[in-house]
Amino acid sequence: MSLADRLRRWFGPSSGTVGASDATTTERPTHGAYDRLARWYDWSGAIAFSDTCVELTLRALRDARLEPRSCLDIACGTGSFLMAMERRGAFAVGVDRSHAMLVEARDKAREQHARLALVCADMREFQLGRRFELVTCFYDALNHLPDTIGVAAAIETAARHAEGGGLYVFDTNNERMFQRVWSGPRATIDVVSGDVEIDYHYDPVRRTGSAQVTFRRRGEPPVTGWVHERCHAARELERALESAGFVLESRGPHPYFADPSESLKDLWIARKR
Fold first, then answer.
1. pLDDT tens digits for range 25-77
2. Cα–Cα distance, 119 to 4 (Å, whole number)
3. Which element (helix H / strand E) includes 9?
4. Rounded percentage of the chain residues whose pLDDT exceeds 70
5. 258 lies in a domain?
6. What is the domain count for the chain?
7. Domain-located, residue 203
């Protein structure tokens, strides 16, 4: 599969706007790439990836014989996954560090008459005062944390909010992703009414990568943001899960972004003791 094909699997066809209603937002303004790119995030095709995460999560819940009445989505972004769970009857809470992404989630929720609670906070250090039967964290959000200490803190925070016997489902970019995609070259992907250009850089010694992402939508000035990620070793994540009180149920290829034979992204499913 070529680099362009891999990226098309990520962006897919552009999707229409999804909606919202009684969403509440706890505001704590932040800055960064996602604040700048939030308005164009769904336009870039990210909803298609969220739909796959919904399917995978529902399959994991069926296998675990769970029907969660509550869901916490950490790094919820514009709320697409969260609204899918709310439509299935779950009390839905989303946490994200980007205030602008949460504004997009709130507006979508109002349009679709979805009831969400949205909290602007760092995934490593929030406290909501309640536990959830399902905790999720997608879009390689843990890779955005720059070190092992931060990953351990984020997983510990997820554990504090997970009910005993509940599931923690998340994904990560693995080493193949960084070696085959983040090592370059620059790629331009056509989407409806514009394109997305990504210029990747990866340092295999430091195991850190940076991607300059530019959204170009016809009739509007381009918007650019830098995304920084770290390639966390699987053993680091396994130790953090065990230390936080999770039992790893499975770790396998995430089917969205590549063929299983050359998986670039891992899907993790853990259960809280």
1. 443 333 478 999 999 899 888 888 999 999 999 999 999 999 999 999 999 99
2. 35
3. helix 3-11
4. 87
5. yes
6. 1
7. no
Cβ atoms of 266 and 171 within 8 Å: the answer is yes
The DSSP string of 204-238 is TTTTEEEEEEEEEETTS--EEEEEEEE---HHHHH
Output the domain CATH number for residue 144: 3.40.50.150
Mean pLDDT of the chain: 88
Q: Which domain holds residue 10?
A: 3-184+231-272
- Residue type at position 143: N
The 8-class DSSP code of residue 260 comes to: G
DSSP state string for 138-154 = -TTGGGGS-SHHHHHHH
Please check whether residue 166 lies inside any domain of the structure.
yes
Q: Is the pTM of this model over 0.90?
A: no
Nearest to 102 by CA among 85, 119, 127: 119
Q: How far apart are the first and last CA of the chain?
A: 40
Q: How many helices (H) and strands (E) does the chain have?
A: 8, 12
Contact 265, 174 (CB under 8 A): yes
Which amino acid is it at 45?
A: G
Q: Which amino acid is at 71?
A: C
- Within a domain: 140: yes
- Helix (H) / strand (E) containing 101: helix 99-111
